Amino acid sequence: MDLTSCTWMVRELGEAVSCTVLLDDDSLLVGGWDGTIKHWTEAGDLVWEAKTPNRISSMVIKDGSIYATSGLHIVCLQASTGAIQWDVALEGSADAVMTTSKCVLAASSVYDIEHNDFIESAIWSISLDGDVLATHRMDERPWTLYSYNDGAIAGLGRPLNGYLILDTNGDILEQNKDWDSPTICATRGENPVFGLADGSIRSMDGALVSSMQSAISNVIKHLDGYVVADDNGNIEFVAGDAQWEATGNEVVALSLGFDINEKGSCWVARWNGSQGEVIVHSIIDGERIASLNGQRVHDMAFNGQRIAAGCENGQVFVWEKGLFQRRMEKPDQQQNDPLRSAMLEKLRALRK
Questions:
Q1: Which of 9, 280, 290, 298 could join 351 via S-S bond, C-beta 3.0 to 4.6 A?
Q2: Positive or negative, the Cα torsion across 140, 18, 25, 38?
Q3: Neighbour order of strands in the sheet with 132-138
Q4: Which of 12-16, 110-114, 124-128, 135-139 has the lowest mean pLDDT?
Q5: What gap in Å lies between CA 79 and CA 25, rounded to an integer?
């Protein structure tokens, strides 16, 4: 099935999309490469637009505020209006942001073009009012920074590798540095697993969960296992002894999706250097369910009922579970119907 035929809405950011967030109320928050942030309601109406200093790579919402990375800065915006409340400049690019019950935690890094490597990184603890409380400087880049036990867990690159655990105040509680390979990615939530540059996927105690042929670029947890992608474009669903595989171009975004015909789904965005593709697989056996060709996707978001994909051309596609399922149940309506295609275009335009 063609994904364009079952799109709930398409929105325009006005610049290349770099970050997408679907909120619990199905509203949509999108950030761009030039620092624009837009917020739309679940029906697709624009709530507000804000301009920040630079590229948005990460956003999180807490207690009526939005905390976003913006180039070298961490910016706090009022969630209801988009008004900027405060702005903190970090030492290096702001890579990730999250919150605990007591503070904002951010990761930054400095990249040296001459050495072709990250030469200095830090994890920052910032008060909810914008005051810098502490800075943990390190040689290792935190490639991941996620919530963990009301604190945070950060996967580290070389030279130490492993991960850090921080408490609710942003103080370091524990450091694991026994791994021989840099930590590239990790799952969110309890009992995370980590994807390493040597192709292994490991649990917190270092036990080998699975392995692939090249560096792990993405790993996400499903109720029945893990979906893993490597730098060669290979994808595996690992669930005990049962698994499926898919191959193709570079995987640039990977997300779980809503149930389709009572089966979970996996959404994969690929890029071959000139053309992009979004493919929807069944999580059970890897069956290809639907696809979208031509779009270069930079980020995807999923909230249980909807999935969004933000693209290089500034478009944001949103799919909704109910509409998607109805289109699946009537595949005959998808076959070369120009009147239907024109109607769908008008409907999508009305939602803009």
A1: 9
A2: positive
A3: 93-99, 104-112, 117-126, 132-138
A4: 110-114
A5: 13
- Note if the bond before 338 is cis, omega within 30 degrees: no
C-alpha distance from residue 257 to each of 106, 260, 304 (Å): 28, 9, 7
- Report the distance separating Cα 224 and Cα 239, nearest Å: 6
CA angle 164, 186, 28 (to 5 degrees): 115
DSSP assignment of 54-112: S-EEEEEEETTEEEEEETTEEEEEETTT--EEEEEE-SSEEEEEEE-SS-EEEEEEEEE
Q: What angle do CA 67, 37, 53 make, to 5 degrees?
A: 75
For residue range 174-210, list pLDDT tens digits in order. Answer: 888 889 999 999 999 889 999 999 999 999 999 999 9
> How far is Cα 141 from Cα 98, in angstroms, rounded to an integer?
16
8 A C-beta contact, residue 230 and residue 218: no
Residue (of 14, 8, 39, 52) closest to 313 by Cα position: 14
104 token code pair: 């904002």
In this prediction the pTM is 0.90
| pLDDT of 241 above 80 | no
Report the candidate in 264, 251, 260 with the shortest Cα–Cα distance to residue 3.
260
